[in-house]
Design brief:
Blueprint (H helix, E strand, L loop, with lengths): L3 E4 L9 H16 L3 E6 L9 H14 L5 E4 L4 H13 L3 E4 L3 H13 L9 H4 L2 H9 L5 E4 L15 E6 L3 E6 L7 E3 L8 H10 L4 E5 L3 H13 L6 E5 L2 E3 L14 H6 L4 H10 L12 H7 L10 E3 L3 H11 L3 H10 L5 H8 L9 H9 L11 H9 L8 H15 L4 H12 L7 H16 L2
Parallel strand pairs: 1-2, 2-3, 9-10, 11-12
Antiparallel strand pairs: 4-5, 5-8, 6-7
Helix pairs in contact: 1-10, 1-11, 3-7, 10-12, 17-19
Subcellular location: Cytoplasm
Family: Belongs to the class-I aminoacyl-tRNA synthetase family. Glutamate--tRNA ligase type 1 subfamily.
EC number: 6.1.1.17
Length: 453
């Protein structure tokens, strides 16, 4: 059977770097297994789901280098969920409940006060047809719960029921179904919660591996039970650690924390984002991978740590800079042209080592073409007048800087920072930057003359 995975975001906001971790884990696993990647929008929440968010998520994944083999929308598959729900109802595994949220909370509070676990008591199962009719006559509408298989025929006498699986990230795992409430699968308004559509889709689409965040571990036992109730084997599960900030703060799609779109707009490279998202919280060092194929080589679910994956957002700039410093001109030629930079390969090779982002090249292109604010200190003015007179004749080449500064040193006695820094500030308007031997030919004789007193 072909390895098939899925990434199933809710189109209720923009995905962030933490979401991209799950998407990339699935994508890389599929690529290493010569399998398929499905992008499946969980858009059954009609009030919050937006088409523009779905489009943005697809664009963000494309920017990261993820090209789905198939795109599905749960909103177009409701008939399949209705069929599955009816199958569970016919089997007596899906039952109507009429409690309000306030009533359920009061029951949970009483259970806690009595030292009992706040597990639903299956009161809905005890209702007679007449009682259900009376409740509906009051205007109540049912929500529907799935009967967990944690009993020996009498659902009101539960027993310890372990559901176990071997997790590709966490090793052997188990959940006791007797410790859980029967899950609600259908809301009062008839809409589906995430669980049933996800399972039906996984069955119908042949999903073989479910790779997701560790916050879903507790749900897995319930989902395995529903797979079995629908007559299908459960997929293989892998629950990875979640990406958090250095302070342990979780990321929120609603807050837009470190959204992929904002990182793209900030000028970061997709592979710096992907490298951090994938390698943080694993046994691998976080290194910038220039290509997805290289990242796939380093990717291994077994290397994922059990502890949280903390990262410092500032790491992105460091990773990005390392990628940019090695980028060949062919990879950035079009982007530089779009920025109005016409310096060609010579310019790029001269400045890339000082760029954190490709767009930083604009700073140095301005240095080349001007105008700039030449920084001339009063105490350096006479020194720069002398330097101007000693500028070598002929073409300005990479050798010109060394010959020029040697002549200036011999004439003025200055050396080190006192020699080089006034010249750099006067010619570039900056106190730092690319090697002046590379910049001098780009700046050119006329600009050199114009910027010196």
């Amino acid at each position: 059977m072909m390895t098939t995975v899925r990434f199933a975001p809710s189109p209720t906001g923009h995905i962030h770097i933490g979401n991209s971790r799950t998407a990339l884990f699935n994508w890389l696993f599929a690529k290493k297994s010569d399998g398929k990647f499905i992008l499946r929008f969980d858009d059954t929440d009609t009030e919050r789901s937006r088409a523009e968010y779905a489009d943005a998520i697809a664009a963000d994944l494309q920017w990261l280098g993820i090209t789905p083999d198939r795109i599905e929308r749960q909103s177009s598959r409701v008939e399949s969920y209705d069929t599955a729900a009816q199958k569970l109802k016919d089997a007596g595994l899906l039952y109507a409940c009429y409690e309000t949220p306030d009533e359920l909370e009061r029951r949970r509070s009483r259970a806690r006060a009595l030292g009992r676990p706040p597990v639903y008591d299956r009161a809905g199962l005890k209702l007679t047809d007449d009682e259900r009719a009376a409740l509906e006559a009051e205007g109540r509408r049912p929500h529907w719960r799935f009967v967990l298989p944690n009993h020996d025929g009498d659902p009101f006498t539960t027993r310890r029921t372990e559901v176990s699986w071997t997790d590709l990230c966490r090793g052997d795992q188990s959940v006791d179904l007797a410790s859980l409430s029967d899950p609600v699968l259908i809301r009062e308004d008839g809409s589906y919660l995430y669980t049933l559509p996800s399972i039906v889709d996984d069955i119908d689409m042949g999903v073989t591996h479910v790779i997701r965040g560790e916050d879903h571990v507790a749900n897995t036992g319930v989902q395995v039970a529903i797979f079995e109730a629908l007559g299908a084997p459960a997929p293989v599960f892998a629950h990875h650690n979640l990406l958090t900030t250095r302070d342990g703060e979780g990321l929120s799609k609603r807050k837009g924390a470190l959204s992929i779109g904002s990182l793209r707009d900030a000028g970061l490279e997709p592979m710096s984002v992907a490298s951090l998202a994938v390698l943080t919280g694993t046994s691998h060092s976080v290194e910038p991978m220039a290509e997805m194929a290289k990242l796939a080589e380093a990717f291994d679910l077994a290397s994922v740590s059990r502890s949280s994956a903390k990262f410092d957002p500032e790491e992105l700039n460091g990773l990005n800079a390392r990628l940019v410093h090695e980028m060949p001109f062919a990879d950035v030629e079009g982007r530089l042209a779009n920025l109005g930079i016409a310096g060609g390969e010579t310019f790029w090779l001269a400045v890339r080592g000082n760029c954190v982002k490709v767009s930083d090249a604009q700073i140095y292109w301005q240095v080349v073409v001007g105008p700039i604010e030449s920084l001339v200190e009063d105490e350096d003015r006479d020194f720069l007048v002398t330097a101007s007179k000693l500028l070598p004749e002929g073409d300005i080449t990479q050798d010109s800087w060394g010959a020029w500064t040697s002549a200036v040193k011999a004439e003025t006695g200055r050396k080190g920072k006192g020699l080089f820094m006034p010249l750099r500030k006067a010619l570039t308007g900056l106190g730092h930057g690319p090697d002046m031997k590379d910049m001098l030919p780009l700046i050119g004789r006329q600009n050199i003359r114009d910027r010196l007193p």
